[in-house]
């Protein structure tokens, strides 16, 4: 076992489809990584996470950070609501802390991804950033004046910006949220409705579109048009200097969005794919855990720039 100059941490990113775990050092480098399909039943998920932790645990691991989909209470230990994976009221942090004997920090998954991007990714040196993670659902997080915006608890739930009325039903109980039009699940629905092979990937849609395939172009437009509306609304509301698109489909959404610039000169904003890709979540989880807690908001080194 090589020596490590500083403590390390394990980041766990609970996605609607994929559960990712990474052993990360203080610079944000991933030393080891695991991913497997997510169990959606809370007790099974806890057992699955524990098994991953046992695989990655090493003497230098000082803490564990977990990103959960859904709204998280201000104490950063309690999940208030969930969507595809619902851990409402389930004491995941307490259970894992007891089992591992290491401090466990828990926060919203997109907040963790944004903290990762602020610390060692594409949001370094930025004070006002909105992030959306495009995966099974759509996560959201917001930094203003260098601090994560919490509101009462769940500020920045950008997946639930309304883009269609009445629209498809959403996990939040409303209809027409951008999660219902522009998530990975929604992309699969658009692909099915267009009569394309259900296994068609975003990359294949781009390739088909480049060959002049009208169905692929239509699917990409149906998927990304509402995301443009949501981003314009976010920019109108909070005027960030940067919108980051992360998650498994962040790159694809960014590429598809290039065809649809912001319509209003009032609400222009730079939109980029997350520099850390869909690993922003595990890196942010681990660095936040190493910082003791995210109570201080953005890590000091992020505020100082690269
Ligand atoms: Zn919703």
Automatic annotation (TrEMBL):
Which Pfam family is an annotated match for this chain, by its short name?
ROK
PROSITE patterns cross-referenced by the UniProt entry: ROK
Its Gene Ontology molecular function terms?
Answer: glucokinase activity
Q: What is its EC number?
A: 2.7.1.2
Keyword Cytoplasm in annotation: no
Q: Give the UniProt keywords, A-Z.
A: Transferase
- Signal peptide bounds: none
Q: Which family does it belong to?
A: Belongs to the ROK (NagC/XylR) family.
Name of protein:
Glucokinase
| Biological source species | Labrys monachus
